[in-house]
Amino acid sequence: MDVYFVRHGITNWNKEKRYLGHSDIGLIRSELSQLNNLQKVLSRLNFDHVFTSDLLRCQETLAYLSIPSQVSIDCRLREINFGDWEGKTYDELKNQIAYRNWLENWEVYSIPNGESAETFKSRIDFFFYELFQQAMETSPAKILVMTHGGVIRYLVSKYVSSRSFWDLTISHGQGIRLTFEQQKGEWVCSSLLAVPFQEKEK
After folding, report:
1. 105 labelled as ligand-binding?
2. Maximum Cα–Cα distance for the chain, whole Å?
3. C-alpha–C-alpha distance, residues 155 and 158, integer Å
4. How far apart are CA 45 and CA 19, in angstroms?
5. Can 49 be counted among the known catalytic residues?
6. H-helix or E-strand spanning residue 118
7. 149 C-beta neighbours (distance < 10 Å), count
8. Following CA atoms 28, 2, 135, 122 in sequence, which dihedral angle do they give, to the nearest 10 degrees?
9. Are 145 and 77 in contact (CB under 8 A)?
10. pLDDT in tens, 26-54
């Protein structure tokens, strides 16, 4: 099963480097043309199903890409809830002990009035548990998941042992393809590829 994880296009808060989690902000219209290369790549693929976060920035990105496939909207694909840090920048937070602790170990320290790592990971894990269960009942599939940077970081760190959470950088309107194979009853990632990608890459 090939799963294409795509990060939504850019918003004003992204451009200003503000933390953007559950706040529902749309895309910058003048920046939509940056998605054209991605659109060309994805238009050549036939997706069996498309899943998207329910937040506006993901749905607007998907609408611009015009992928001809059945779409399921799922709130479990949202970015982490940044709570008190929503809309804040690194410079505004860097002197807070809670913030420095979180940067040091995001899986242990929680965001004030936000979402814990355990809650964030469990909702994404449950989505993928259902996806894998469904894949076992059907033939190998090609899936598109329109989501957020933190979600993609977590999934890659979970399924690709050589990548840590902070190790991966996904730009807006970019993504990765993970290929999963069933081995001894478990789904294992057998390859990772950047999207859009060069034709010569394998």
Report:
1. no
2. 52
3. 5
4. 32
5. no
6. helix 117-137
7. 19
8. -50
9. yes
10. 999 999 999 999 999 999 899 999 999 99
